[in-house]
Structures are given as C-alpha cells and as structure tokens.
Specification:
alpha/beta; TIM Barrel; globular; binds pyridoxal-5'-phosphate
C-alpha cells in the first residue's frame, strides 16, 4: 500500500468514527507522525494532503528540515506545520521553540519556563500541550493528573505570555482490546474539563490522544488531534 492509500484508509476510519460519535470531521486534526522516516516520505504524505506532522526528536527533525524547506512545504497558502511530541530535555528547549510550531510534550514547569523564554527571544508565540501520564508505566512521560506541579504550571501559564496552552496530550498503555484503552481517553477528557474549571484564566480544549491502533476509540471519547505513525508510514525500524 502506498502512503496515499494508507492516508485514504485512515481518513475513512476517521470519518466513520466521527459519524458514530456525532462529531463533524473538522473537529479532529490528523497528525502524521514521521519520526524515523526520511524527508521524502514526509513530502509524499504532504502531496497526499497531510499538513500536520509530529516528530519526537529535535535533532532528527532538524536534520530533515532543510529538505522540507527546500521543497517549499512550509510556505503559504497551505503550509505544513510540525509539532514536537517526544520527551524534551530542558537543554533542547531553545532549539525546539525555534524549530517547531507547537510543543505537545510539556511535562514540567521548568520546561515551560524555558520554552517561554526561547519563544520570547524568537519573537513568537508557541502553542503547547501538557502531557499527562495516566498509567504507572516507566515508558510513559508526563505529569500525573493529581501532581501538585500540574496545578502550579496552570497557575503560572497566564504569565508565560509567549506560550499558548492548547490542551492535554496522553499516551495510554497498549492493549489489543480497545475497551481497555477507552477509560484512559475518557479520563483525559474529564481531567481537561476539571482543569478548565479550576483555571478560568486559561482557555484550552485540545485533546491529543489516539495512535494507529486506538484512534477510533479516542475519537469516540473526544480526541481533537490524533497522532498516526504506523498506519500511514508503515512499521518503524526497531530502535
Ligand atoms: C510514535 C508516536 C506516535 C505514533 O504511533 P503509531 O502507533 O505508530 O501510530 C504517536 N504519539 C507519540 C507520542 C509517539 O511517540
């Protein structure tokens, strides 16, 4: 299957899930997660209509970016944008704020402060998502839903004027049975609703949740952004 065919099939599934959930198709952004895949592959997805890309590593994205710039895909009227979705060390924050259109993996107040400073220096306003860790797995990142730091970060965000909070992101544990994954998505939605009430100075409604194997359930539970790698680009080489 070509990338274009894969995208068409994912699009069909998105449309069907939106229909079942009584949501307009436009309420869900499709992000193509292009980590480990070369810039040619990204250009193929762009040619097939994808405009939102997710990358996990600052350095890897930096390496591909020249080719993407040269191909003109970041240029108006219908430019591509790229979000950072991987864990970000504070020492990479400056570069990330310069290169990316959004950082979706913010998991500490310290990182937010660094990104704010870097965005100010770059004279831009940087959208962010806060990553939430809903399971105990070591492989997952983010702030726990009951972490004191989460409220401290939300308390501080209105003063970090170069950041713009868009919403929450999570990666639930993998399960073949999607009904076991559903409660995590529901929990993220309920957390967003509770936090939005507790922090009325902020407006954010984004829910970045759902990957290749579970995005249909995520859409049913209110995802506004789904992050699809394997179902578009095929399997990644083993790390
Ligand atoms: C790799 C990755 C994805 C995409 O996963 P697939 O299962 O290949 O769709 C989504 N989100 C994050 C944070 C990732 O690291």
């Amino acid at each position: 299957m070509s990338i274009a065919e894969n995208i068409a099939r994912v699009e069909e599934q998105i449309a069907a899930a939106c229909h079942r959930a009584n949501r307009p198709r436009e309420s869900v952004y499709l992000m193509a997660v292009s980590k480990t895949h070369p810039s040619d592959t990204i250009l193929e997805a762009y040619a097939a209509g994808v405009r939102l890309f997710g990358e996990n590593r600052v350095q890897e994205y930096e390496g591909k970016r020249d080719a993407l710039l040269a191909a003109g895909i970041f240029v108006a009227p219908s430019p591509a944008i790229a979000h950072c979705i991987g864990p970000l060390q504070s020492n990479k924050a400056t570069r990330a704020a310069q290169l990316f259109d959004s950082v979706d993996s913010v998991d500490s107040l310290r990182l937010a402060e660094r990104l704010n400073k870097a965005a100010a220096e770059a004279k831009k306003r940087l959208p962010i998502f806060i990553e939430i860790k809903l399971s105990q797995e070591d492989s997952k990142h983010g702030l726990a839903p009951d972490a004191v730091e989460l409220d401290a970060l939300l308390e501080k965000l209105p003063d970090l004027t170069h950041l713009e909070l868009r919403g929450l992101m999570t990666v639930p544990p993998y399960a073949d049975d999607l009904e076991q994954v559903r409660p995590y998505f529901r929990q993220l939605r309920q957390l967003r609703d509770a936090l939005a009430q507790r922090h009325p100075r902020l407006t954010f409604d984004g829910l970045s949740m759902g990957m290749s194997h579970d995005f249909v359930v995520a859409i049913e539970e209110g995802a506004t952004l789904i992050r699809i790698g394997t179902a578009i680009f095929g399997a990644r080489p083993a790390a």
